[in-house]
Amino acid sequence: MTSKTLFARVGLGGVVLAAALMATPAIASADPITDFLCSSGSAQFCPAPIAPLVAPAPAPQAAPQPVPAPSTFEYKNCTEARNAGAAPVLRGEYGYGAHLDSNNDGVGCE
User: Fold this and answer.
1) CA distance 29 to 75
2) Among positive and negative, which fits the CA dihedral 102, 105, 108, 109?
3) Separation between Cα atoms, residue 91 and residue 66, nearest integer Å
4) Residue 20 scores a pLDDT above 80
5) CB-based burial, 37-50: b 16+ in 10 Å, e otherwise
6) Does residue 103 carry a pLDDT above 80?
7) Closest-CA residue to 93 (of 68, 70, 76)
8) pTM, entire model
9) SS3 39
């Protein structure tokens, strides 16, 4: 069989089919009708391109600062607190003790 008769047997439909296969993308969507309409020049039928989902990089976390243990130190009396330069001593501060705060207002050795 010569190439002339082969071309005649395959016909124009085979040439069109071969051209269509060459022009179609390698990865098609799930809907062949949408593929056909989109590739025929009807942009209104083309699905919008979907941007790839990229997870944001996690922010570097600083090492948590250790919380200092509350001090159990208390000045013995107000004279000791004054000599240390700590008077008046506020509640929650280093060296505060309830025995230093006679009126229980949160300020010792006032």
Assistant:
1) 80
2) negative
3) 22
4) no
5) ebeeeeeeeeeeee
6) yes
7) 70
8) 0.37
9) helix
**Whole-number pLDDT of residue 56:** 78
Q: What is the pLDDT of residue 27?
A: 55
Q: How confident is the model at residue 79 (pLDDT cuts 50, 70, 90)?
A: very high
For residue 104, what are its two tokens?
A: 């229980």
Nearest-CA neighbor of 100 among 67, 77, 66? 77
For residue 98, give every residue at least 6 positions away whose Cβ sits within 8 Å of its Cβ, in sequence order, or none: 104
What does the pLDDT average to over 94-105?
89
Which of 56, 46, 57, 98 shows the shortest CA–CA distance to 74?
Answer: 98
Helix (H, G, I), strand (E, B), or coil: what is residue 55? coil
Question: What's the distance, Cα to Cα, between the start and end of the chain in Å?
Answer: 119
C-alpha neighbours within 13 Å on the C-beta side of residue 47: 12
Q: How far apart are CA 35 and CA 41, in angstroms?
A: 10
Residue 89 CA: distances (Å) to CA of 72, 98, 102, 104? 14, 10, 12, 12
According to the model, what pLDDT value does residue 60 have?
82
